[in-house]
């Protein structure tokens, strides 16, 4: 049952609506209910509704939730996706208006990073490269052209970035490719400059729903502004206390901007939290009260008080990890809980390492999200791109990834020439490389290398006709001398072995998929299976993720580790006076817990081989002392915990004996 405010938010369709409310108050629930309402009660065609979420994972979850309320057919027609996916959909339809050819490629962060590195001065240091990429990306997100970026430059680094930006865009155009930033920037350019396109899209998408609105950046806001038609068909839900992406350009000011741009904006506040035990909510509210507030919110919960929030003081990271693994095991037994009801949250991915080790020893199944997945490993991606190119010679993104991998001395200028030719002749890059006059216009070495590459791919295409996909992978590895290339790339034998192991595993995957006699002719479908299969479903495993990745999720048992000054709040943020954003991050973490919250810190941390002494996080001191139980400080309370532990041991023994 929805509460009256939620109900009002679902029913209101007379103009733009903003639902501004704290964590766990049912904002996301309002979006799913409203989608069902728009279809069932307002007769809106599902194809005209778009819900925008912050991550692909959130989109998948929302789609599943909505699917239970509406017909399968309606669910199919809905658009539920991220801003970037919406931009991609737009560009597929409007490629001409955006100046792209059909079948343009999308460079992922890796590919575009590699391209910027090629354009950057040789030997650039990783952190300088990182800053350069950021500057280019910022200019793109601010909607600046390279010339405008140069004009706006305030110093040498920005001027340099503007010049790289210009060459980077030229290269993208030559490749008929876009990067992630373009997925927002190009649709925006089209919509802001072309009234006809704008009117068309306002008709195509009659109602928009945006989750986690506080984390939209300026370009995304402008995109929304273009898409909202005269009817004002939009519902945004958000929480300014959970704005944690300022470092990536998110602008919580957009909350107020909505009211300025739409004076008829209706604002609804939700005040009941349905997620957290009272004590957890009190702690979260007390913590966030330390931040300045523009929008006052008071959040209450009808749920029981729940047990005290535990604070663990540990000797070092290994000790912390061991204690958490053992506490999680006890809790799982005591509450007969499933592992996927547990989450361990941390500030940075590197903190997972000690935890992984301890969880393995304790035989706790876990899933690391956000860590580099198998399919994202460089060597696996290389091979998959060969397969993509073999299956589809006009896959330019795949062509660009493998044409110089292993190194074939086909330089950037050569590729740029090739890209321009492909563009003027409307052909794929691989086909352009077959063009004799094009090759003649190039220096002889790269021309010969290109011709060799074409022969290699043609040969592999022949092989593909007669062999299984697994055999084809082996042929790719052999004919490209990939092993030798890896050896040169990874001089460390252990690393080389790991990478070769990944490739062997890939061959095994294809063998397993092709068991029922699959030929490489099915390569395309096998590849699609590989990349679209939901390999992300962690099943019944404890979740480990960063606090950022935990946004929007909820778990019965939550651990936040590394509650130390320097870790959380993060050192860099402390230096730069961004503690408020770290506090919001802590608020997000605390409010993920439904029943039991455990906070831990280590007295010492090993960093770069040095043993450093830590101070407990300032956030621990900001929490209400009465709600906390510092383990090790109060013998009586500890005895209680110890008794529970012993009970769960006895229960386990009894279960074993009973078997
Ligand atoms: N009216 C209601 N009655 C009972 N449970 C509800 C109600 N509304 C929401 N819930 C439940 O409360 C929990 C939190 O809801 P939801 O995830 O929608 O909150 P949220 O405001 O989006 O939280 P966050 O700010 O963390 O994203 C969910 O388990 C949801 O099913
Ligand atoms: Mg939510």
UniProtKB/TrEMBL annotation:
CDD domains from the UniProt entry: DEXQc_UvrD, SF1_C_UvrD
Keywords of this entry: ATP-binding, DNA replication, DNA-binding, Helicase, Hydrolase, Isomerase, Nucleotide-binding
Domain UvrD-like helicase C-terminal: 278-552
Enzymatic reactions: ATP + H2O = ADP + phosphate + H(+); Couples ATP hydrolysis with the unwinding of duplex DNA by translocating in the 3'-5' direction
One GO-annotated biological process of the protein: DNA replication
InterPro entries (UniProt xref): DExx_box_DNA_helicase_dom_sf (IPR013986), DNA_helicase_UvrD-like_C (IPR014017), DNA_helicase_UvrD/REP (IPR000212), Helicase_Rep (IPR005752), P-loop_NTPase (IPR027417), UvrD-like_ATP-bd (IPR014016)
Source taxon at top rank: Bacteria
One Pfam entry name: UvrD-helicase
Documented EC number(s): 5.6.2.4
GO CC terms: cytosol
SUPFAM superfamilies membership: P-loop containing nucleoside triphosphate hydrolases
GO molecular function: 3'-5' DNA helicase activity; ATP binding; hydrolase activity; single-stranded DNA binding
Residues that, per the record, bind ATP: 21-28, 275
Domain UvrD-like helicase ATP-binding: 1-277
UniProt function note: Rep helicase is a single-stranded DNA-dependent ATPase involved in DNA replication; it can initiate unwinding at a nick in the DNA. It binds to the single-stranded DNA and acts in a progressive fashion along the DNA in the 3' to 5' direction.
Family: Belongs to the helicase family. UvrD subfamily.
Subunit-level organization: Homodimer.
The protein's name in its UniProt record: ATP-dependent DNA helicase Rep
Source organism: Oleiagrimonas soli
Gene from which the chain derives: rep
């Amino acid at each position: 049952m929805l509460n009256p405010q939620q109900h009002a938010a679902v029913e209101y369709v007379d103009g733009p609506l903003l639902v501004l409310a704290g964590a766990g108050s049912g904002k996301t629930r309002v979006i799913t209910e409203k989608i069902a309402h728009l279809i069932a009660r307002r007769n809106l065609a599902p194809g005209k509704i778009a819900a925008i979420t912050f991550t692909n994972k959130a989109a998948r979850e929302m789609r599943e939730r909505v699917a239970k309320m509406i017909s399968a057919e309606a669910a199919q027609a809905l658009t539920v996706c991220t801003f970037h996916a919406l931009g991609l959909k737009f560009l597929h339809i409007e490629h001409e208006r955006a100046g792209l050819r059909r079948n343009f490629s999308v460079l992922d962060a890796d590919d575009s990073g590699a391209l910027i590195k090629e354009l950057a001065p040789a030997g650039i240091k990783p952190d300088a490269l990182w800053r350069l990429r950021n500057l280019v990306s910022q200019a793109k997100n601010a909607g600046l052209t390279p010339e405008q970026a140069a004009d706006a430059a305030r110093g040498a680094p920005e001027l340099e970035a503007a010049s790289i930006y210009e060459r980077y865009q030229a290269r993208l155009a030559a490749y008929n490719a876009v990067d992630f930033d373009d997925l927002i920037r190009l649709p925006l350019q089209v919509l802001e400059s072309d009234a006809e396109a704008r009117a068309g899209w306002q008709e195509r998408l009659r109602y928009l729903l945006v989750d986690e609105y506080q984390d939209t950046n300026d370009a995304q806001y402008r995109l929304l502004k273009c898409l909202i038609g005269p009817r004002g068909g939009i519902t945004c839900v958000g929480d300014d206390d959970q704005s944690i992406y300022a470092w990536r350009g998110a602008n919580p000011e957009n909350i107020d901007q909505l009211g300025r741009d739409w004076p008829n904006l209706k604002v609804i506040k939700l005040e009941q939290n349905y997620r957290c035990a009272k004590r957890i909510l009190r702690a979260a509210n007390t913590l966030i009260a330390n931040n300045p507030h523009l929008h006052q919110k008071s959040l209450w919960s009808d749920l029981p008080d729940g047990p005290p929030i535990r604070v663990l003081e540990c000797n070092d990271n290994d000790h912390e990890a061991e204690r958490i693994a053992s506490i999680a095991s006890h809790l799982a037994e005591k509450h007969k809980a499933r592992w996927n009801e547990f989450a361990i949250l941390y500030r940075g991915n590197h903190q997972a390492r000690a935890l992984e080790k301890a969880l393995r020893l304790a035989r706790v199944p876990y899933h690391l999200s956000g860590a580099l997945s198998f399919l994202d490993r460089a060597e696996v991606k290389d091979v998959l791109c060969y397969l993509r190119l073999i299956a589809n010679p006009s896959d330019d993104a795949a062509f660009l990834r493998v044409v110089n991998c292993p190194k074939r001395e086909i330089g950037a200028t050569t590729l740029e020439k090739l890209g321009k030719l492909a563009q003027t002749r409307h052909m794929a890059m691989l086909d352009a490389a077959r063009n004799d006059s094009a090759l003649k216009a190039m220096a002889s070495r790269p021309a010969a290398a290109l011709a060799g590459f074409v022969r290699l791919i043609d040969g592999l295409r022949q092989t593909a006709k007669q062999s299984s996909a697994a055999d084809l992978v082996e042929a790719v590895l052999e004919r490209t001398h990939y092993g030798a290339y890896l050896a040169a790339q990874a001089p460390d034998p252990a690393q080389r072995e790991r990478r070769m192991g990944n490739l062997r595993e890939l061959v095994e995957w294809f063998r397993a998929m092709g068991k029922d006699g699959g030929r490489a002719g099915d390569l395309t479908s096998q590849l699609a299976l590989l990349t679209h299969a939901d390999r992300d479903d962690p099943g019944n495993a404890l979740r480990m993720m960063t606090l950022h990745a935990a946004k929007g999720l909820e778990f019965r048992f939550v651990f936040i580790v590394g509650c130390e000054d320097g870790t959380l709040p993060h050192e860099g943020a402390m230096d730069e006076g961004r503690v408020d954003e770290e506090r919001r991050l802590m608020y997000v973490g605390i409010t993920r817990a439904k029943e039991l919250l455990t906070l831990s810190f280590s007295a010492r941390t090993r960093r770069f081989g040095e043993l450093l002494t830590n101070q407990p996080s300032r956030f621990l001191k900001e929490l209400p002392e009465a709600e906390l139980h510092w383990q090790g400080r109060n013998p009586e309370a500890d005895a209680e915990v110890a008794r529970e532990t012993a009970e769960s041991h006895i229960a386990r023994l009894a279960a074993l004996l009973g078997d």
